[in-house]
Amino acid sequence: MDNLELEKLINEANLLLIRAESELQKPQKEMMSFAACQNAKLSMLMLLKAYLLKQKIEIVEDANLVELYEKCRAYDPAFNKIAIQEMGCVSGTHCRMEEYCMHSNYVIACVDKAKVIRTMLYRS
Q: pLDDT band for position 95 (50/70/90)?
């Protein structure tokens, strides 16, 4: 992946994160927490991919969130503080979205984790 493709991946991840954040800014009755959750998780997936690609670490194209996170943790133990496995939606490689994404406080935590990953990407 060249720098332009990496930049495009990062920009797309940032756009998804912005969408998630803006969804959370809406009044409770109008907020679509499922949409915010999905945007945040997809952003995390792309940011983890971008981090690994920036470090020149090979990844499998269809790797899931947990697999990418584990690769990042193996490369940089600082990723341990993010604790993706504690997210209520992720269990191994299975995502229980319907049980997790409907609660705004869980979605806020998901968005916060994506922000931490983004910061780690920019600092690398």
A: low
pTM equals 0.87
CB-CB contact of 108 with 121 (8 Å): no
Q: Please give the residue range of the domain that contains residue 86.
A: 3-123
CATH number at residue 29: 1.20.120.330
Amino acid at residue number 93? T
Domain count, the chain: 1
Dihedral in degrees, nearest 10, Cα atoms 48, 62, 39, 85: -60
95, containing H or E segment: strand 94-95
Q: Are 18 and 43 in contact (CB under 8 A)?
A: no
